[in-house]
Amino acid sequence: MKNIAHIWSVVCSQSVTDEETKNISLLNLIERFNIGINKDQKKPDEGTVVNVGINFELVSRFSKKGEDKDISFDYQSTLITPNGKIIGQPNERTIAFRKGTQNIRIRTKFNEFPLISAGLYHVQVAYRETDSTAYEPAASIPIEIKIEEK
């Protein structure tokens, strides 16, 4: 990408932007979810998706390179299962990077996690400039899911 650079992406439980400085605080960076289920509940398996109520955020930062002008780009986040398959629909949106703005943060809030099994999931972030047809991978954030019987 010639006009935009991905700086970082993280998964956290909450982010807070300071109104005065416009800096962001990332609270409780997430590496693992421990999911508790009752012994009489059916455990998720490869054939069934169980949406577990968990609040979390994906926060990404991008920087403008080169000339200071209005730029738009497409942003995409996708959840990948432990067996490498996409689960659910990718979250896609167009981001307007206005003239005079050097950095931009994108916050995506979730209130559930689509679960098929325990294991290592990945939240993948990709982007493309509006004149491009292909998304460029930017980050793959691992999230370990542990299922524990209560």
Q: Can you write the helix and strand succession as a string?
A: EEEEEEEEEEE
- The number of helices is 0
- Straight-line distance between termini: 48 Å
Oligomeric state of the chains present here: single chain
**Strand arrangement across the biggest beta sheet:** 3-11-10-6-7
Briefly summarize what is shown.
With 150 residues, the protein is mainly β. It is built from no helices and eleven strands. The strands form three sheets. The protein has a five-stranded mixed β-sheet, with no helix packed on it. The chain has a four-stranded antiparallel β-sheet with strand order 2-1-5-8, with no helix packed on it.
Overview features:
mainly beta; Immunoglobulin-like; four-stranded antiparallel β-sheet; five-stranded mixed β-sheet; 11 strands; 150 residues
Please explain how this structure is put together.
The protein is built from no helices and eleven strands. With 150 residues, it is mainly β. It has a single domain (4-148), classed as Immunoglobulins (Immunoglobulin-like), CATH 2.60.40. The strands form three sheets. A five-stranded mixed β-sheet has the order 3-11-10-6-7, with no helix packed on it. Strands 2-1-5-8 form a four-stranded antiparallel β-sheet, with no helix packed on it. A hairpin with a 6-residue loop joins strand 1 and strand 2. The mean pLDDT is 90.
